[in-house]
């Protein structure tokens, strides 16, 4: 085959200046917001930044923020990619319940813990695959397609647990929820590893770009020869997998599977974390670390309100106010305002 | 022409966006009973001027006069009250409401406080009959063709304003007959004494319809002249400020030796499209002529697997291939620049670089990622080869002009080292300069041995670059013109169904 011999001279363009990642990172609205929330927490509760070493692990409010934020952060990792494809997954909370129910029921019936964990993860993968099939093959709108499992999933979880809270004392499952590694709580370790692995996989391969392309314009993606359907299947399945991990953590934490309450409404926190992280619900550009940061912002507010002694009812109001501020900071309007500031120009 | 007098005058209009002078002391006058064409390349300032005339923008300097009186327009609605109405390319009506509701929206006649539907319908029928349109006014607007919708939009604009009518690219999505129908309507309005401002990319339509023309270039007015004193070359020269290298002499193309058969389609068919056979050779451009709806685009979609075929075989370099979806087509070395660039072509939010490498990346698979240096190199190479004008390749492609976006999509396919390229209306909706460049690129790719299948509504253009022309009518390939038979007249005859030559 003859290649059209277009001119091969080096282009006249100078190489692009590499952005300075650190400077860019610290001026992001999400990072500033997290810092601000943490400082407010510190003002309300002077011991907020104190971290102590006790019984071979770290203790302190900051560690608590990380630990409590881990499930939503894990959900947000999967949700980021779904939202990047212009979709949404409402079922992740219910999938958490299913995963916890599967693991708890199996171990209480004498199945070994590793197999129970694998089964729970497998259940999550299947749930995600189901969502993906509805969205891809049946072409159902994601919000409706995943609403199916959001409603049905909790029913499934209740069927598995036979309507009771299944408690267990299996050390492996409990370790996943409450153990520690190198002094850090297991949920934090798992979330961090998952974030790093997912980021590397999407950015070192072309997966990230292809997902963004599908999200920006699915029709153009098809015309450009992308297998959009396969990508969507992968993305929804991965979101189910993440939800299963989060479900195991929550079950291990309370040493039981509560089909009614495990992961309840967490899908909304996960969506919020992704949006705070700067990924648009219209699909396209996404950032997994930023979504994790979004989850930490949400948890910092929760923890801050809790330790400062305000009643939890304040939580929701304060949270929404802070979220509005963050979203305004990210809006094109404020981007224009920032650009006018001296020093912000290139 | 009867006696005309100025209605809407713009004097010394200046509009500045940031550093950029979009309009630089531009004068413009619209007279009664006259069609005034406004021409210019993309970015010349046409749409800015229109937005100032209709009140969507406020000028930074200069004044607007209506019947000799200075006016200040706050917004298009305010402009409407002065009698200035606009009809845009994409009809700005409500597709899910009835024709009559669209005509009278916001000023429905009421009876006892309720909308009087009977009266609206009667009024609407009466109104549209004056435009020679006899349609069921109670049916939803979306049930009608774009042409009918355009006429409804014009009727509404004229009803609401009635002094000055701005037509912004009204013919872009109409076929030949529909354009004529629209022109009849416009001529009728002109006879009634309306001032009509007409914007289009089609020069022949300007000559057919307009009385005077104002040409803008880089925000400045180049000329305002009566059209009977001008010819096409004059107009193009004024628009571009240079001579365009359009090759209207296809003799060099025809009869020349062809390479081996690159792709062959045998009995390819799909419901609603007659089966067809076609072979495209190396170094050959097969042009497709035919009216909108003749099945041109359907053939291209079938070839590329966008719509799976019901039957037939495809061979590439003699080897049979299966193409059930675009991914398989890309794997077989096909490329496709679709007709609707915005909807099916570009990834608006992604960078120019990513838009160029995306098809190659999809072909390589997700595991073999092109690293940043590869991407920069590829994008740079093809951007230079096709002269894509972008400030940098990391900017979102949606910020580029239509012509440059089209070149980006072309670059995307050249990057996969294609064996066969399908171009569907590659020059639609782009300015004359980029237009000429695309035509030159097609010629160059052919000379370099690529097999191309090019669909275009512009006959002169198809004639200029095709070795062979397939004519389509009623979802069937009805004629094939080769060698000396290629000429605009012959194509028109074949489209109209008067050609005697049957397809072998």
Q: Give a count of the beta strands of chain B, DSSP E runs of length 2 or more.
A: 22
Question: N- to C-terminal separation of chain B?
Answer: 51 Å
The largest β sheet of chain B comes out as: 6 strands, mixed
What would CATH call the class of the largest domain in chain B? Alpha Beta
N- and C-termini, Cα separation of chain A: 45 Å
Please give the order of strands in the largest beta sheet of chain A.
1-2
Which geometry of chain A do the CA atoms define? globular
Cα Rg of chain B? 25 Å
> Which stretches of chain A are low in confidence, meaning pLDDT under 50 for 5 or more residues running?
1-17, 342-346
Order of helices and strands of chain A: HHEEHHHHEHEEHHHHEHHHH
Relevant terms:
heterodimer; A: 346 residues; mainly alpha; ABC transporter involved in vitamin B12 uptake, BtuC; two-stranded antiparallel ribbon; two-stranded antiparallel sheet; B: 504 residues; alpha/beta; Rossmann fold; 3 domains; 6-stranded mixed beta sheet; 17 helices; 34% helix; globular
